[in-house]
Amino acid sequence: MFGALLLLLIVVAIVAAWVVATRNDLVRRVNLVAESWRQVDVELQRRYELIPNLVQVVEAYAQYERALLTSLTAARANAMSQQALPQRAGAEDALGQNVRQVLVRAEAYPQLKASSQFLALQCELVDTEDRIAAGLRLYNGNVRALDTKCQTFPASVVANSMHVQQAEYFEADDPAVRAVVQIPPGLGN
Questions:
Q1: pLDDT digits (tens, 9 = 90+) for 141-188
Q2: Distance (Å, whole) CA 25 – CA 133
Q3: SS3 at position 153
Q4: Is residue 65 included in any domain, yes or no?
Q5: 144 within domain boundaries
Q6: How far apart, in Å, are the Cα atoms of 186 and each of 66, 93, 105, 113, 121?
Q7: Which structural domain, as residue segments, surrounds residue 43?
Q8: Distance from C-alpha of 122 to C-alpha of 113, rounded to nearest angstrom
Q9: Cα distance between residue 148 and residue 96, in whole Å
Q10: Is the bond preceding 154 in cis, omega lying within 30 degrees of 0?
């Protein structure tokens, strides 16, 4: 009798330890997703701050591109106002398209291309886009790890009891985002 009771206590202790470890792992993963999103958000804010400077510099050289610059400003405002992830992803795609259009149209203005201010902004934007992409890879990796944990039995039982929700991936819908980026000649020199 004593042996059976001891065995039962050991099994209960093992199950309790597993539940605590699984709960702690879920909390850690939820926090990693939140932290990685905050890092992406920091880079998105950096891009938002660079865009008015880009508009100002391009405006000084390219007076005929008013509609393009207005569209870029509107896309920036729209992206900044979105809170829900699917809408935010779409708005960020549109903003990225507008930034690329401005940089492509700048090719038509040799004085603008030669401007040290424009070149510095262009390099900052490229660097920021790279940071955003790296942050999104980390975020989506953390989302995958959390979602896998939430969907895997028996951890899903603990996740459901804690009301842990699966996170949403940040996905680009824009085919241009998925295309290989062509770097203009002389940019890296």
A1: 999 999 999 999 999 999 999 999 999 999 866 555 555 555 555 544
A2: 26
A3: coil
A4: yes
A5: yes
A6: 27, 27, 17, 11, 15
A7: 33-178
A8: 10
A9: 30
A10: yes
pLDDT, tens digit (0-9, with 9 covering 90-100), for 51-85: 998 888 887 777 667 788 888 899 999 999 998 88
Residues 37, 56: contact at Cβ < 8 Å? no
pTM of the shown model? 0.76
Q: In the chain, which ranges are continuous DSSP H helix?
A: 2-61, 66-81, 85-105, 110-114, 116-151, 155-162, 175-178
Tell me how far apart the terminal alpha carbons of the chain are, to the nearest angstrom: 81
Q: What is the CATH number of the domain that holds 98?
A: 1.20.1440.20
Domain-located, residue 13 = no
User: How many domains is the chain partitioned into structurally?
Assistant: 1
- Three-state DSSP state, 108: helix
Q: Is residue 109 part of a domain?
A: yes
Question: Which residue's entry shows tokens 């039995």?
Answer: 153
Asked if 173 and 89 count as a contact pair (C-beta separation under 8 A), the reply is yes
